Amino acid sequence: MNGLQDEMNAAPARPTAAAGPHVPAVPAGAAPATSRWGSIDRKSPFLACFLSVMPGLGQVYVGYYRRGFVHAIVVASMITLLATDIDSLAPLVAIFLAFFWMYNIIDAGRRAAYYNHVVAGGETFDMPADFATPGMQGSIFGGLLLIAAGVIFLSHTVWGVPLDWMEDWWPVAPILFGVYLVFKAILDRTKAGAATS
Q1: pTM of the predicted model as reported, rounded to 2 decimal places
Q2: Is 156 exposed, middle or buried (0-12, 13-18, 19+ CB in 10 A)?
């Protein structure tokens, strides 16, 4: 361990420019600091994908803490839901779980590659806000959605309220999400128009 620390201390200082929270951008032509184990600035996309077999762990490895925790919660919730008596909804939930699990693995690898691109002196564009810290950013829509889902599943597990009605009403969820996305897009364009005028 001391050998690695000595090598890190002996590495020549190099100028950096902020490329987003905690992500130094190396000027073109400058070599990143290295040790006998390779570059100390880089993240392995392969390792990120491998760690994401445990959902969210690859994102945490790269530094996307909040995203990693969210992925873990989503997968755990889907597994818990499949363990309950949902009968005809089970195929829908299972397909979503499989898709999300694979997306989680690919996402971790791509984020590690993106991280490496930035620290290697690639185009410096802002990293997403969830890179900085494991803090949570408020969302009224997301919070209300989680509260509603929690109340529905709690009423089923504690009071035995049947979930048969969800078989007919589940399409309301993507409709509401679509309405939210349209509203947010219109709001963002309005703000952008006001900023340019």
Answers
A1: 0.52
A2: middle
Contact by Cβ (8 Å): 16, 23: no
Token duo for residue 3: 């050998």
pLDDT, tens only, 92-110: 888 989 999 999 999 999 9
- Which 3-state string (H, E, C) describes the chain? CHHHHHHHHHCCCCCCEECCCCCEECCCCCCCCEECCEECCCCCHHHHHHHCCCCCHHHHHHCCHHHHHHHHHHHHHHHHHHHCCCHHHHHHHHHHHHHHHHHHHHHHHHHHHHHHHHHCCCCCCCCCHHHCCCCCCCCHHHHHHHHHHHHHHHHHHHHCCCCCCHHHHCCHHHHHHHHHHHHHHHHHHHHHHHHHC
**What is the pLDDT confidence band of residue 51, given thresholds at 50, 70 and 90?**
very high
CA 81, distance to chain mean position in Å, is 21
d(CA 153, CA 81): 8
Question: Within its chain, how far is the Cα of 122 from the centroid?
Answer: 22
d(CA 182, CA 18): 33
